[in-house]
Specification:
The structure is a homodimer. The first copy, chain A, is mainly α. The first copy, chain A, has helices at about 1-10, 15-40, 45-55, 65-70, 75-90, 110-120, 120-130, 135-150, and strands at about 90-95, 105-110. Chains A and B meet through helix 1, helix 2, helix 3, helix 7 and helix 8 of A and helix 1, helix 2, helix 3, helix 7 and helix 8 of B. Chain A binds a DNA duplex (30 and 30 nucleotides) through helix 2, helix 3 and helix 5.
Amino acid sequence: MKQVDEQEALLQLDNQLCFMLYACSRAVTKAYRPKLETLGLTYPQYLVMLVLWEWQRQPPEQASVKALGERLLLDSGTLTPLLKRLEQLGLVERRRAVHDERERVLALTEAGMQLKQQAASVPQTLLCESGVPAEEISRLRQELAQLLARVC
Amino acid sequence: MKQVDEQEALLQLDNQLCFMLYACSRAVTKAYRPKLETLGLTYPQYLVMLVLWEWQRQPPEQASVKALGERLLLDSGTLTPLLKRLEQLGLVERRRAVHDERERVLALTEAGMQLKQQAASVPQTLLCESGVPAEEISRLRQELAQLLARVC
DNA sequence: AGCAATTAAATTGCATACAATCTAATTTTA
DNA sequence: TAAAATTAGATTGTATGCAATTTAATTGCT
């Protein structure tokens, strides 16, 4: 009987870390949506732009799709069409690497660089609106980083 | 200069709680995939089954798509096709409510109920394989539940 | 009763995710 | 060096998510 109840408890939705992650991720993404709409970006597109803006200050070995995928934990099946859309938007260029024709070299256009100014207020604004203390967010972020390191 | 650096820091990918949630959610879902494949379920389908199994013990007012959506924070645009697939798999029935023809009454088939036995070991197994202490998972889950309550 | 407002699902359209496969370029190795 | 193995992206196919719209049924209101 005890066994059954324990098993029962393990299957309860509210006891599942995975569901909380899944629900929180979608909820937070949804909170971003209105802000990102003013930038003309979806959430995954915004993440890609964050990385490309970072790369301006700290250039990676190769600004390739592979490097981007390693940073965001996404594969070319997701990134290729997404990057094509950013290219269509005039934010990103997708050239071929000279030293290796297989490789794409990703680069920001002037417009892509400019957009950073508008994006700068997004995290700040959401942080405030959420009403969650900054230190709580920071702590949670660190705990999730640890979890991610273990799971991946 | 300080202003610029702070803004810079706020845009750093690793400083974004949202990215950690997004990455962790996908990573954990990926960890579930092989186990769920043996059940013939995707991860969202598994979540729906969790709710329906729960409803066997604690029936809701109405076992409707709406009630399911409130539990999982998903809308009919996602749930309708997903439920049709579960119906095709022979796990779920989608009848019409007698008292209100707009409403779908969701019910488990015999096979749907049986599947619970096989599913029972999934959370346990993953908990062990992850190597993350159970109490750490529990704490994180609670913190995320609080965050979810604030954001939603 | 009769019609407007509301509501539950379904549908449509677009953008991810991701496994699996394919293609082309580069490396390795016999 | 020439074929085999590897690698970077692209493509294909399936299943979400979700906003926006549509459809059908029910409620409210006069």
